[in-house]
Amino acid sequence: MKLQDIKREWWKEGVVYQIYPRSFQDSNGDGIGDLRGIINRLDYIQSLGVDTIWLNPIYSSPNDDNGYDISDYRNIMSEFGDMADFEELLAGMHERGLKVVMDLVVNHCSDEHEWFQQAKTSRDNPYYDYFHWWPAEKGTPPVRWSYFDPEANAWRYNAATDSYYLHYFAIKQPDLNWENPKLRAEIYDMMHYWFKKGIDGFRMDVITFISKHDGYPEFPVEFHGDKMIDMYAQGPRLHEYLHEMNREVLQHYDCMTVAEGPGTHTDNVLALVDEDRQELNMNYHFDHQQIGVGPRFIVNDDFQNLVKFKQIMSEWDAALADKGWNTVYFGNHDFPRMVTRWASDAPEYRRYASKMLSTYLLTMRGTPYYYMGDEIGMSNIKFDNIEDYKDIMTINWYELTKAEGGDLDKFMESHKLCARDNARTPVHWDDTAHAGFTTGEPWIKVNPNYTDINVAAQENDPDSELNYFRALNALRKANLTVIYGRYDLLLPEHDDIYAYTRTLDDEVVLVLLNFSANAHRLDINALVDNVGPATSMLLDNYAHHAEASEIGYLRAYQAQVIKL
Ligand code: GLC
Ligand code: CA
């Protein structure tokens, strides 16, 4: 596609930076990050050169699942502050040219939400139909699998109504009934409320799950256990609802939307994000996250299989090359730290490895979703004791494994690599107590490597991961080829190297990434045929190394961005 034929959009060009407020910065010493903490760090956030901030849920919540269980959609979680803080934060971001995207969690709410408090009292209550129920007189409900239920059962009996309510996630997260037009109208109204405050978009939590199959038929056995995800994402009215949401709400604002899309694959994603269908702008998938990771996050030998990774990422690029728009991410609050998961957190490699991964995210086609702390190369904390975990998912899975007599050592080892809490430890600001995150006791342990890895130390180091990330953002802003250029994979079968070109009109950018500790020499004239005399290095994560870099010679975890 030529530049002149491309529909340019701010949400295609911007880099999204994700803030998990609970772990970003505490301002009042209670050990919990808060909105005032983010306000105090606004200049830092702006200094990164990112464009859009995605805030994980900040609404009122009893925090069974850290804010993904909302008890009031129009108020701020008391631990995080109040509405005045939110308005100040929003204004502070807008003054700095940053867009703000909120989490929209409407597949379920909290059982402490007024709707559920009413609904659970009687079948005649007007809110009963805001939820999904299976009346006990019909017998045991058909199998539905739950992520966070201690028995993995998504139905829970409620005596007052003599019926079971559906909860794909925790017991305290009842699923909302989108079949009910009143419920949908309430949600659209709530979305208008936030847009009128001035927010710039929504990241939609497990939005692919909102439509349930009529009558809850038994799913075929191949969709049992965690394979149910693919059925959950195929509810018959998903697209009808999203189209309606677009017409009722989204089309009225200059906003961006992104689906968290469990169960989306390259063959069904366009139904969500093809602009002609008027649903959502973007989706993020889980296909690469599943490489080498089985049920309950048990890891196998494929964990860092680069050939598979390249294949998956390339297929996703192709699926969205002409219509829709892709997203790229390594980690977020649901996945481990990127440097541990996708490269190496060994002290001798860590710095190069995290710069290399950042290079990938910011030079691929698709909007990058970049997780807080990755800009300084934070790594997994790797808890030895189950008592250190705070995440309901890890704790329940541990208990399930224990009850089944499963291999708990293997579980603990796998979770050092994959548990969600690895990404939820507090951001390292400096080398003072608790990494400058709090003056109190942090709600979750701080990674002891904060004395080596922290913002203060990296601010003044021209070779730091932090300053490299800033340079990458500047490069991307100055270079439309890196944003819109066609993506072509080179060396698909290479075990260690990820190489590709980005091409827009006459400009070609070559990206060479070494995902391993082995050195490799590549002949770039053999790789690409348009190597011109003015070939130059745009960015190199070994630029400050004592030995000069050479185009095409890649040392451990080296990244080179080359203009041909
Ligand atoms: C999404 C969120 C995750 C949460 C779950 C239930 O996957 O990203 O953190 O636990 O939905 O709301
Ligand atoms: Ca606090």
From TrEMBL:
Sections of the chain in a coiled coil: none
Keywords: Glycosidase, Hydrolase
GO biological process, one term: oligosaccharide catabolic process
Entry keyword Transmembrane helix: no
Domain named Glycosyl hydrolase family 13 catalytic: residues: 18-424
GO molecular function per UniProt: alpha-amylase activity
Pfam families: Alpha-amylase, Malt_amylase_C
Similarity field: Belongs to the glycosyl hydrolase 13 family.
PANTHER family: ALPHA-AMYLASE FAMILY MEMBER, OLIGO-1,6-GLUCOSIDASE 1
Protein name per the record: Alpha-glucosidase
